Amino acid sequence: MHRSGAAMAWNVFKFCTALRGLGSIMILLVLGVVGVTYYAVVVTNYFPALQSGASFESSLVALLVLLVFHCLLAMLLWSYFSVVLTDPGSVPPNWRPSVDEERGETEPLAGSEYNSAVMGVQQSTAIGDPTNTRVRYCRKCNQLKPPRCHHCSVCGRCILKMDHHCVWVVNCVGALNYKYFLLFLFYTFLETTVVTLSLLPHFIAFFTDGEIPGTPGSLATTFLAFVLNLAFSLSVLGFLIMHISLVAGNTTTIEAYEKKTTPKWRYDLGRRKNFEQVFGTDKKYWFIPGYSEEDLRRMPALQGLEYPSKPDLDSQEF
């Protein structure tokens, strides 16, 4: 039994190491798909159609496709690299939890209170005591964990409001970049859908008896781009629907699994407030990877350390 447990731990370690090793390979893969798509849509099909000016209608369609394609591509890449380059949120070195909220004390623990709290959480964690739900302790990082914080074995650290580790962005998705990840999914779905629809007539032409203009290389690129974008559009749609439901309930992928037997969730404050905790209150910033200074100043949830909750469910903690 011990040997199988050790083997399992070793397999998990190797898996996490392999994910770290992917690194820039996944970024290059994403950029490769973007490059193939760009070549098929712009270089091979619609820019030549715009230049030819065969008819006013065809030129207008080509112009509209190129404008929408480039706008969505810009937003997609902006959102993507925002997820890649933004730290998802780490526990501050001097972070200390608040005193028991039931006593009405919200000042950070200090001195002997802090040391005794750490020792108490370490002991309860060691013996598997499930009753200590106020403060959690990470034995891998040797530090206390804020609410909704989880340890990522791939990153090797605790992540604030961790949702999951995404190999496509080579980063964890957490409190500080979750909005950017959702926008990346959103613009990816729109972009791949536009590409699929714009290349559909060219794809159908492959199965007709008429002669298809273009070189073998350009035809193969068009065929490949259509198949790739159709596949990504359908798969991303599923992820997007899932994450929309998570945002509506103010939960993460990890929390949804952990609380699957819990009928009520302490952080579920209603769909509008749940949405604002991810996207902010300023509507001008809802569709761009960023926040207004006012939202960052007056909404602690955007910083990943404090979250408003329902008073009657404050005993819950994950």
Protein described:
This protein is mostly helical and about 325 residues long. The chain contains nine helices and six strands; from the N terminus they run ααααββββββααααα. The chain has a two-stranded antiparallel ribbon. β3 and β4 (about 155-160) form a beta hairpin. α2 crosses α6 (about 215-250). The radius of gyration is 24 Å and the shape is elongated. The relative contact order is 0.11. The model is unreliable at about 1-10, about 100-115 and about 120-135 (pLDDT under 50).
What is the beta-strand fraction?
5-15%
Q: What general form does the structure show?
A: elongated
Largest sheet: 2 strands, antiparallel
Order of helices and strands: HHHHEEEEEEHHHHH
> Number of DSSP strands?
6
Radius of gyration: 24 Å
The order of strands across the largest sheet is 1-2
Number of DSSP helical runs? 9
Query: What is the mean predicted local confidence, pLDDT?
Result: 83
Termini Cα gap: 29 Å
Residue stretches low in confidence (pLDDT < 50, at least 5 long) are 1-10, 100-114, 121-133
Q: Report the helical percentage.
A: 55-70%
In terms of structural class, how would the helical and strand content be classed?
mainly alpha
How would you summarize the topology of this molecule?
Elements: H1 2-22, H2 24-52, H3 56-85, H4 111-126, E1 136-138, E2 143-145, E3 150-152, E4 157-159, E5 164-166, E6 171-173, H5 178-205, H6 216-248, H7 253-258, H8 271-279, H9 293-298
Antiparallel strand pairs: 1-2, 3-4, 5-6
Pfam family, one: DHHC
Keywords: Acyltransferase, Membrane, Transferase, Transmembrane, Transmembrane helix
Organism: Acorus calamus
